[in-house]
Structures are given as C-alpha cells and as structure tokens.
Design brief:
TolA/TonB C-terminal domain, alpha+beta, 4 helices, 251 residues, three-stranded antiparallel sheet
Length: 251
C-alpha cells in the first residue's frame, strides 16, 4: 500500500483576518441603514393614484333637418240646415154644451077647506058651596141659611207664614263682632223643618263663604221668636229654606 501524503496545514494568518472583520461589520451596518431608510421613505410617500380610465369619445352622425310639413287647408264649414218653421195647430174651439133647464110642473093647488062645524056649547059646572070650617094656621117659611165659608187656601197661608218666619229669623240675627271688624258681608241659605214652633234638621244649604256668618245664621234660626202656627198648619211638618243676610249697616 502506498501511503497518502497530506500537505501540512496552512499557517493561521491572524493579522489579515483581524483587518477584514471590521470592514465586513461596517458594510453590514451601512446596508441595514440603507434598507431602513428605504422602508421609511416608502411608508411616508403614498402610492401614486391609478391612472384615469380612458375617455370614450362617441361621434354622432348629424341629424337630418326636420322636414317642413305644410298644414292641410281647413275645409270650409258646412252650412247649417235652416230649420223648417213649425206650424202650430190652431186650438179647437171650446163648445159649451147648454143643458136645457127642466120644466118644473106647476105646484098643486090646495084643496078647498070644508066649512067649520059649529062648536057645541059647554055648560059651566055649578060653583062649590063655601067651606065654613076654620082655616088651619100655615107655618112661616124658615129663614135662608148663610152661605158656607170658602175652604181656606193652605198654600197662601203657608206663604204668609213663611214670610213671618223670615222676618223673625232676620230680626234675631246677631252680627259677629269679629266678622264686623273684618268687614265680612254676605248671605247664607239655611234649611230646616218646622212643626208647631219647633225647629229640626237645621243645616246650611248655601254658604256665604265665611264660617262666622254661617254659624250666626244657624244661631238666628235656633233663637228666633216664631209667631203662632196657623190652625190650618198645626200638626204638619213643613220644610223651609230661608236666606239670612248680613249687612254692616244692620245694627
């Protein structure tokens, strides 16, 4: 066998390799800086707009001039037919038929009355003999009775009695001193039932707007000296509504 002889390894050149290494690093840094600058420039400049689409130009053929059309000559209007005169027929003469009046026969003549017969003579009866008995005394007629008095009008009596009640209540009004100082005036409509001088179901129907005046009106109804009840109204329960008035001029 023949031995393969290998050449000896080349010696290490440390000085040349140490000089090449900084140059390579500097080139790599420059290349990287150029790439970064290119990327920054590209990002800061927008992409150019696309080109506009091509404009199509269409050439139209010239339109022919409009033909002038002569209007047709109007036909002369046809003459209207002349209406024929209408001959109205003459009215027929009215013939009044005269009916002959019926001939009335002559009235019959009354028959002659026969001669009256002689009336027989009537003899008068003999006069009665005079009565010699004494006459009986005749009772004198009774004197006429006076006419019955008319029935009393209860409605008018009640109206008169209501006026008396109103006067009695108004006379019993005592003007409250506080209402007088506040210059309060007005009227209160009170309702109550009345029977033989007794008052019940006393109430205010329409207020005067002031409580002082309303209470004074109720007190006047309670304390009023009422007149005597008429005979026609005694024992009856009557309902009344009376206005009680308050004026500063009243005492």
């Amino acid at each position: 066998m023949s031995a393969v002889l290998h050449p000896p390894p080349a010696p290490w050149r440390e000085d040349q390799d140490g000089k090449r290494w900084p140059l390579a690093a500097l080139a790599a840094l420059l290349l990287e800086a150029a790439l970064i600058a290119a990327i920054v420039w590209w990002s800061s400049h927008p992409a150019p707009p696309p080109p506009p689409p091509p404009v199509q130009i269409v050439l139209e053929a010239p339109k022919p001039a409009p033909k002038t059309v002569t209007p047709p000559t109007p036909k002369p209007p046809e003459p209207k037919p002349v209406p024929k005169p209408v001959v109205k027929p003459l009215p027929k003469p009215i013939v009044h038929k005269v009916q002959p009046k019926p001939v009335q026969p002559p009235p019959p003549q009354p028959a002659p009355h026969p001669a009256p017969e002689p009336t027989p003579k009537v003899q008068a009866p003999p006069a009665p003999a005079p009565d010699t008995r004494p006459a009986m005394p005749v009772a004198a007629p009774a004197p006429p009775q006076p006419p019955a008095p008319p029935a009393p009008d209860v409605a008018s009596i009640k109206a008169t009695f209501e006026a008396e009640l109103r006067s009695a209540i108004q006379a019993a009004v005592r003007y409250p001193q506080a209402a007088r100082m506040m210059q309060l005036t007005g009227k209160t409509l009170v309702g109550f039932d009345f029977r033989d001088g007794a008052v019940s179901h006393l109430r205010v129907v329409t207020s005067s707007g002031a409580d002082l005046l309303d209470h004074a009106a109720l007190e006047a109804v309670r304390n009023a000296p009422y007149p005597a009840t008429p005979k026609e109204l005694q024992g009856k329960n009557m309902a009344f509504t009376i206005w009680v008035r308050f004026h500063l001029s009243d005492s």
